[in-house]
Design a protein that fits this description.
This protein has one domain (1-11, 32-234). Helix content is 72%, strand content 0%. It is built from ten helices and no strands. It has helices at 14-29, 39-63, 66-90, 98-113, 122-137, 139-147, 151-168, 173-177, 183-208, 211-233. Helix 1 packs antiparallel against helix 10 (211-233) and helix 4 (98-113) crosses helix 6 (139-147). The longest helix is centred in the C-terminal third of the chain and has 26 residues, at 183-208. The model has no long low-confidence stretch (mean pLDDT 88).
């Protein structure tokens, strides 16, 4: 049965996401001329291309600024800290201990208030984390944190957020006044357009089974497998260290 190779785009670094999308765009562009005539496919393809261009502009601006690069890296670290807290908390959903279940339910309710916190824009996320930490530090939730041994995870969120704020608040006036691209928003737009094209290609490949869709599907899967295989081989890193980026496809 036709399918897309499993790949977690969220695990890819910003640079890797851009590389991945460009690999798909180029692979489809290299297919024989006139093969693809479907108007919807071509429209999705064009929109993905434009999203890729805008994302590249954002990444270019980041690479030109040491301060902005520090901000981006610090933001990625606090996003991981939040995710680590959420995953450790989720372990207790299956607990058989009533005290642990009570603590999980209470903390999980709080975390739902900050759903997708990692995807908020930079300043909103900073304020959101500050508010979340204030709540977790209250007497009501501090007891639950202790019950589930989540203090280290809570401290990791706090320290990474403070590090982010120190970089963000030290930006020069020149950087503040230049055009700023919110890479989170642009990455979300890029992946949304990517998923639209990928899902459309898969659906039509199943429905009509022609080379016009089978070959683009092959392109998607070739590129996805490359990144999925290297993600599987990527070694874990120590706290605060950055993962080694995946090189572009040949």
């Amino acid at each position: 049965m036709k399918k897309l190779v499993v790949l977690s785009l969220t695990r890819l670094q910003n640079l890797e996401v851009g590389q991945h999308v460009k690999g798909v765009l180029k692979g489809i562009a290299d297919l024989e001329s006139g093969l693809i005539t479907d108007a919807n496919f071509l429209n999705y393809y064009a929109r993905l291309g434009e999203a890729s261009v805008q994302f590249d502009k954002a990444m270019l601006k980041i690479t030109k600024s040491d301060e902005t690069l520090k901000i981006t890296n610090a933001d990625a670290l606090r996003d991981k800290a939040i995710t680590a807290f959420q995953r450790q908390l989720s372990v207790y959903e299956l607990s058989e201990d009533e005290t642990e279940i009570e603590a999980f339910n209470s903390l999980n309710t709080v975390m739902k208030t900050y759903k997708n916190l990692q995807r908020w824009n930079l300043e909103e996320e900073t304020n959101g984390i500050d508010n979340l930490l204030d709540e977790l530090a209250s007497a009501k939730y501090a007891a639950h944190i202790a019950t589930l041994n989540l203090q280290n995870f809570q401290d990791r969120i706090k320290s990474s957020n403070e590090k982010f704020k120190s970089f963000f608040n030290s930006r020069t006036n020149e950087q503040v006044n230049t055009e700023y691209y919110d890479t989170k928003t642009l990455r979300e737009e890029l992946t949304d357009q990517y998923n639209l094209l990928a899902e459309y290609t898969l659906t039509l490949s199943k429905a009509v089974d022609t080379e016009a869709f089978n070959k683009p599907l092959d392109v998607f899967n070739t590129v996805r497998k490359y990144y999925a295989d290297l993600l599987a081989k990527r070694k874990g890193t120590k706290k605060g260290e950055e993962e080694e980026p995946i090189p572009p496809m040949e």
